[in-house]
Specification:
Layout lengths: L32 H27 L14 H25 L2 H24 L1 H4 L1 H24 L1 H4 L5 H30 L1 E2 L5 E2 L4 H18 L23 H9 L1 H31 L5 H25 L5 H19 L11 H29 L6 H32 L7 H15 L6
Antiparallel strand pairs: 1-2
């Protein structure tokens, strides 16, 4: 044994690890088929979620949907997707501790196939169902993601060494946001190719079933890869569900009482995702309304700039900044995000963004870099801090808090747009309001370094 390694095998051998079966040691991250199974499964799931969600956001922009003239409904679409996380996250966390997380991941992937087939039907019958069909599928995708989340994040410490956690999180975060880029951009391209523009200015969405069929194929492939993930035993097989657990389980509440830094980190994470929930509809509105872009593909490329930045930021967090203390990384990320948003908020006489298309894309990438530098150490802290036996419920509580933030982001976006309109300011000014949400974190929050 290497003298620099701890003799504590519990840090090196995952739960359920069977040396006689030839399972790869979890210290060899990139040689572990479970890592690749999880990373690809997450990649394809994020691709489908973001392709469909971006399609709904683009359809909700002013003058797009036949039923609504001049009303931006993106905030309400964001809130609808987030609602299941608020209502069901704690139950999903209970299930991820009560049963094998790897099994839950596989079950969720099979459910995804069914949901994407419903999306095909929703678009085929869009003329009869209207938004009721497509928004119902959006809600179901939120339900699916609610149950998928605690398993995919909670399983990381069960599969991989503690020392590999930042690298595993960074690589999966990079792959996730690459999927977001592809899903968001492809949503715009598909809409440009398949939507028929009517003479009266409305649009016919029925041909978008073809794009949903692509989502079904992706879901099938993701299901196959989910079966590569090493089987993990239940963390707490005798756990009992009580009604109080639908907000936060008793174990989690007790943990928060004795671990205030963990509770504060949950609140900080929620504020971050509240801000993140506002970003995508703001960028869509800037591209479509303020810049006057006619191509939904071009609008989606602009939105994808954030995800490009997060990939770059994940590399920086894992390589360039790996020797920096976690608390310093978090503060640096916040400063980068706030500075980028302040600059993105400026406009020229006439209302066009000061930076133009290319400049806005560049600073959106910079904002994404700041987001990754901020969120990776925070996410690692939230994964590693709780005891193993309640980690799934802790992740679910984190999801609950994050999606309370994203749920609030929907109406808050609508409010910010109304405020900017009332002041006679263009929609890019919403970036200034978002920066005010993050400013207290930069001034007062310090992530523990232990």
């Amino acid at each position: 044994m290497d003298s620099n390694q701890s003799p504590d095998t519990t840090d090196r051998i995952p739960a359920g690890y069977d040396q006689s079966a030839g399972d790869p040691p979890k210290s060899q991250l990139l040689k572990d088929k479970s890592f690749w199974g999880l990373a690809i499964t997450q990649f394809l799931g994020a691709f489908n979620d973001n392709l469909y969600k971006q399609m709904m956001l683009l359809m909700a922009l002013p003058g797009v949907a036949a039923a609504v003239k001049g009303g931006d409904r993106q905030g309400w679409a964001t809130a609808l997707f987030s609602l299941p996380f608020v209502l069901l996250s704690s139950y999903a966390g209970f299930l991820s501790d009560r049963y094998s997380k790897s099994s839950i991941i596989v079950i969720c992937k099979f459910a995804e196939i069914g949901i994407t087939l419903l999306a095909v039907l929703a678009f085929l019958f869009y003329g009869d169902l209207g938004d009721w069909g497509t928004w119902s599928v959006l809600l179901l995708m939120g339900v699916h993601s609610t149950f998928f989340g605690p398993g995919k994040y909670g399983i990381l410490p069960e599969l991989f060494q503690k020392k590999d956690a930042p690298r595993a999180n960074g690589l999966i975060l990079m792959s996730t946001f690459l999927a977001i880029i592809l899903g968001v951009v492809l949503a715009g391209v598909i809409k440009d190719l398949l939507v028929i523009k009517n003479p009266d200015g409305t649009e016919d969405f029925s041909r978008l079933w073809i794009g949903s069929l692509v989502c079904t194929a992706v879901a099938v492939i993701g299901t196959v890869f989910s079966m590569m993930i090493r089987k993990t035993p239940p963390a707490q097989p005798n756990a009992k569900l009580v009604m109080a657990d639908f907000v936060a389980s008793e174990d989690v509440r007790k943990l928060f009482k004795r671990d205030k830094p963990l509770l504060i980190a949950i609140v900080v994470s929620s504020v971050f995702w509240l801000t993140g929930g506002i970003v995508m509809p703001v960028v869509n509105a800037i591209g479509k309304i303020q810049m006057g872009l006619t191509s939904d593909g071009a609008v989606s490329v602009l939105t994808g700039g954030l995800a490009i930045g997060i990939i770059v930021g994940a590399v920086c967090a894992n390589l360039v900044l790996k020797q920096m203390k976690a608390a310093t990384q978090v503060r640096l990320g916040l400063i980068i995000m706030i500075a980028s948003m302040l600059i993105l908020g400026f406009w020229l006489p006439g209302g066009k963004p000061m930076l133009g298309y290319a400049g806005s894309l560049l600073f959106l990438i910079l904002a994404g870099i700041g987001a990754a530098v901020f969120v990776i150490p925070l996410q690692v802290f939230l994964q590693q801090r709780p005891p193993a036996e309640i980690k799934g419920r802790m992740i679910a509580t984190m999801n609950f808090a994050n999606f309370v933030g994203i749920l609030l982001a929907g109406p808050l976006y609508q409010l910010f747009v109304e405020v900017s309109s009332g002041l006679g300011w263009p929609v890019s000014s919403v970036f200034w309001m978002m920066s005010l949400l993050l400013l207290p974190l930069a001034l007062f929050y310090r992530l523990p370094n232990d």
